[in-house]
Design a protein that fits this description.
The protein has 164 residues and is mostly helical. The chain contains seven helices and no strands.
Length: 164
């Protein structure tokens, strides 16, 4: 009888260990990797916006790679959001991982797409498009917890960040 109890106890410990291992792997794969992917994308968005800031704010269209890169970032962010569990955006969890609201991230996708279209050739309307790009850039500054300007001021307030 005592041998059977030891065997049951040993099986219980093994079963409990397996459950803990499976849950920790699930947490790592689904939660931490998703958060890491979103944070990497936000960093990449920040880098691209800072790098192309002058061209975006002036609607310079001589470089055709800029609209493609902005569209790619928008698509990658959108797909990363689809892979992330919705409960990750509950207030408490979102603040732990310092993530923006899901709606803000979806709006970011739209704003990046708008910037991408704003970087196409607009002929005589380039000045009007430059103003639209500055407005879009300003909305991105408010939506994301990332650096999108070398100064903490929005492009519209400073007048220095984006010249129109």
């Amino acid at each position: 009888m005592s041998g059977q109890l030891k065997m049951i106890g040993l099986l219980g410990v093994i079963f409990t260990g397996a459950i803990v291992y499976i849950l920790s792997q699930y947490y790592f794969k689904v939660v931490l990797e998703s958060v890491s992917d979103i944070r990497k994308l936000l960093s990449e968005i920040s880098r691209r916006l800072l790098f192309y800031q002058d061209k975006i704010c002036n609607a310079a269209t001589e470089n055709s790679e800029i609209p493609n890169k902005l569209s790619d970032l928008s698509a990658r962010l959108s797909s990363a959001l689809d892979l992330m569990p919705r409960y990750m955006f509950l207030v408490g969890i979102r603040h732990i991982f310092k993530l923006p609201k899901r709606d803000d991230l979806l709006s970011t996708c739209q704003e990046l797409t708008d910037l991408s279209y704003g970087m196409r050739d607009h002929g005589k309307n380039q000045n009007r498009q430059a103003i639209k790009n500055v407005m879009t850039f300003s909305r991105l500054c408010r939506l994301l917890p990332i650096e999108t300007a070398y100064k903490r001021e929005s492009p519209l307030k400073s007048g220095i960040v984006c010249e129109v």
